[in-house]
Amino acid sequence: EEKGEGWVEAEVVEAKDRSAVVVLTSQRKKISVLPEKLLPRDTDENLGGGHVDDMTKLTYLNEPGVLYNLKRRYALNEIYTYTGSILIAVNPFTRLPHLYNEYMMEQYKGVQLGELSPHVFAVADASYRAMLNDSMSQSILVSGESGAGKTETTKLIMRYLTYVGGRAVLDDRSVEQQVLESNPLLEAFGNAKTVRNDNSSRFGKFVEIQFDKSGRISGAAIRTYLLERSRVVQITDPERNFHCFYQLCASGKDAELYKLGHASTFHYLNQSKTYELEGINNEDEYWKTKRAMDIVGISRSDQDAIFRTLAAILHLGNIEFSPGKDSDSSKIKDSTSNFHLQMTATLLMCDPDLLVSSLCTRSIHTNEGIIIKELDCAAAAANRDALSKTIYARLFDWLVENINKSIGQDVDSKAQIGVLDIYGFESFKHNSFEQFCINFANEKLQQHFNEHVFKMEQEEYKSEKINWSYIEFIDNQDMLDLIEKKPIGIIALLDEACMFPKSTHATFASKMFRNLSSHPRLEKTKFSETDFTISHYAGKVTYQTDSFLEKNRDYIVAEHCNLLSSSRCSLVSGLFSSLPEESLRSSYKFSSVASRFKQQLQALMETLSSTEPHYVRCVKPNSVNRPQLFENQSVLHQLRCGV
Ligand SMILES: Nc1ncnc2c1ncn2[C@@H]1O[C@H](COP(=O)(O)OP(=O)(O)OP(=O)(O)O)[C@@H](O)[C@H]1O
Question: Where is the Myosin motor domain (predicted)?
Fold first, then answer.
């Protein structure tokens, strides 16, 4: 084992009691090492060609063995490798069209897993055959860190399934085509450039493809998780906002219609100076998105309403405020801001005066009646951003709902194949609420994986009449209890803090430590009173609680709801059907992001546990998104964090 390379290849030339002398293969250098730092490896001869297509063929199945096997194969553009029935896919960062053409799909059709070279089509085919033969629903869980290739892999799986489960004659509006075209559509609204990936999915998704009894695709349902809505109002260079905004600004006539200038003229887009993506033309993408909408079945008038709403969000972001009559009040700053205000109202088809009052004031319900409270400039700007985020998040949900409606659900479906594309475990220098939720999801998936592997082993051992109580079950229930147990788990305590107006992240943190101090997986950190560290299955992660309360609150302001439900555009008003009675008493309706996510995960787990799972683990070979570059340290980190 070596620091820089993770592991290096060497040959032992002299073995002593407390040390060994080895020759490093790459440098022909002799060094002395501690014996416990050495692991045995397969020689090239006994691997037959220097690498194997299944890790279980290694005589020495250890970390460096796995690493070197992947590395050797990657150098040969053999990006797929099995570990038993799990597929490891190393991102090639270059198009490999010969791997994915129709000829290849035909090759893998009906062939036993492992008979041909490892391939994502083989996994898709195995799930399809298992569904047909066992009449049991299947799931394919695609995991990996950002940029590892989950979305591309998911699309290839969907392509394969629509190929084998499609009808012979394809028309443009077939279910298969609609299922496939839902991808570019969701990407336009849910993907963005981040520092790690130019086309990063900012939401999780589970696509369930339904099949009839003859194995033909008969419907599909998409569920999405945790859209990163803060991106709508805040981005840092060189990241971008969601793709759809740039597409619309570059759309020519349509942009003119909504009085949109270049992306750089909008506050929500010019916080970062990155407007273009390498190799991508925003205008072409706009037409691709429109075409996807056509195929999926979003009507032209709904399309207009959608883009009109996007344009409204951009104008809304350009409204600035200046101090009003009183120092703690605000008004629309100047004629430019007023122009954007009028545009926003026109595009949202609502009353401009009502828009002003819902931006600059807030009504508070008290025992004495309703009091109108003025908002200062900072509060008004925050209020404006909250409105933008709410509109965008609801628009995204509307899209998903309507894609589902349009594709159609087959209630008589015999079995389904679900494909899960969700963020892998995350551990950064700074970890916030998002990482907390993502890692919670990964703990859930880990539990599902453990249970599945355990069940499989149990069955295997039972059939071999071995007493399986010897098998250790790696249980992470204690971790899940720490996070989600009621009434004293991190999420429950966070929700409680969010409901008390006086709480701060500090009071939340201290209450958490008071209540959960004895939990072995929770620690306080040395230099902060408010950070906490959790020992996840994949390693320790320290979370900063600073914005936990704010990010967990998903309240919808009554004024916003009133404003938008009064819109003369049915799509916009439909996004904000009236508030439930109880919430009218307070101006804010608190709803917890974490609790909703927890419920969604619970539902997902229930679905998954009724299926037979298949796993694809995507690996990102380097952090600069370059082909033919394999960085040991980074890959090792992913292998260690992996499900
Ligand atoms: N099989 C593949 N062949 C060619 N290129 C690929 C393949 N898989 C991934 N890539 C390249 O890597 C990029 C990142 O992949 P992808 O968007 O699927 O990652 P991801 O794991 O879904 O990331 P995120 O979590 O950020 O959404 C793609 O845009 C593409 O350029």
Answer: 50-643
